[in-house]
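User: Show me a protein chain along with its predicted structure.
Assistant: Here is one chain, sequence first, then structure tokens.
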Amino acid sequence: MGNLHEFTFLSVLLRMVLAMACGAVIGYGRTKKNRTAGFRTFMITSIGACLTMLLSLYEYEMLKGAWAPAVEASGMKFDGSRFSAQVISGVGFLAAGSIIAVEHKQVEGLTTATGLFASVCMGIACGAGFYACVFAALIMIFVTLEALEPLEVLYKRRRRNITFYVEFDHMESLQKIIEVLKNRESSIYSIDVERMHKEGDDYPAAVFSVRLGKGYASHSETLSLIAQMPFVYRIEELIA
């Protein structure tokens, strides 16, 4: 392993391949879920980040070696960290592009954006030859993005807080939905009313943000109760 930490062609090649592999592992899971940034995006960002770190090391080696006389004559100072710092700043624009607003005032892409940021940091670590950090980070990021997602969804479904979207026939029906929730000891945080236009029909819809009562904390039971109301066309829980 000693030679792999030295700045040689073999170590450079290994670091770039490792960065590509790490990006591929993280990006594969995002591709399966049809996320904004997928397999190739994560690979390229990780390779690019690795390349900037390698460029820093290359310049450092050259300034200490072949370019040393010119550096001494000019009095130039070199800061190898500036390349990776600029990459971390610049990836913010790429990550921001993966965050999109969808219907019902929901936002998607935050996990993809943070995944891209982590992928860039992994690429920088690969370029620096910090192998132990790379493998530890890869395992933790992969587990967080893939293995923990079902647990996160389960946790959100078990919380007393719930956000759901419902379509109904008339505005007068909104009060009936509110009464059902209050009869179940629920606290309504907010109601955002929308207007739907489908196939020539024009009818209201609303996004409810609610805290369910202690004795009525089941999300599915609450949604089923509202869905059975004759004036309700559609209802779905919104999970960010």
